[in-house]
Structure prediction request, 275 residues.
Amino acid sequence: MRSHLSLQTVIFISLIFSCSTDKKFSNETTISERAAEELTGNWIEVKKKNNNYFIVDCGTNPQSIRVTKDSIFEGGAMEDTWYEIASISSAGGSDAQNLFNIETSSKTVFQFSWIGKESGLSKWKIFYPGFDYPMERFYIKEAKRKSFKRVRGDNKDCYTDEDFKETTSGDEDKWVGTYKLYETIEKREHLDTFQYVFTVTNENIEIKGYQGTQMISNSQKNYKVSNDSLIVNYTENGDEEEFILVHQGNEYKISGYSIYMLNPPNNEYPLQKIK
Prediction:
């Protein structure tokens, strides 16, 4: 009788462990299957304007993301980047059924969430190594592109090689001078002071950047002009840098990827011409 009870106990424990294990593997399979079903394919960037989303026509292919079972391709106007997927997981919490984290072997993390699943509209946060804050963009499933209105992009939306003129036309003369950005930004419960000084000549632009009293950038680069904008775009130490100086009436402003990463989602600041 004692032996029979022990056997029942063993069977009971085995059944519990089996069910628990099956449930665990079932959840993992569900996440993997849902990720494959929802993420695989081509995604096209859309811009949010006045609470609506549009495909912005810049005369070239729009920014895009293509997801396969083991890779992510991030397509841009200037260059394309390939990432090897290391893992895909649910983000957990209340958004567990609506949000995935895609970790890549290069440590870049893509965080996906639906805004409107039926319409194919999604939000992607891209965490690049070495940056405190993610780049946030909106994408739609390519199959749903006909559901979104296409609008012509303006100078603020579109910066491509086709739009630029090299600095040989004389347009660079109006940019010659020195410009300054000075901002105090609250980050991680303390204040950081950022300062950039841009010195433009007919040949190049000198960029000096400071965080507090520490110099974080000191370089001379070529630039391009397009209408009322001066654009600097380059890669340094593996990191992409972009500064866009804009002249509007009597005012100057600065934007671009490097400025956005100072304090997302703020992507534009006033710029002072000091001489």
Observations:
- The longest helix spans residues 2-39.
- The first strand starts at residue 41 and ends at 49.
- The chain has a mean pLDDT of 77.
- The radius of gyration is 25 Å.
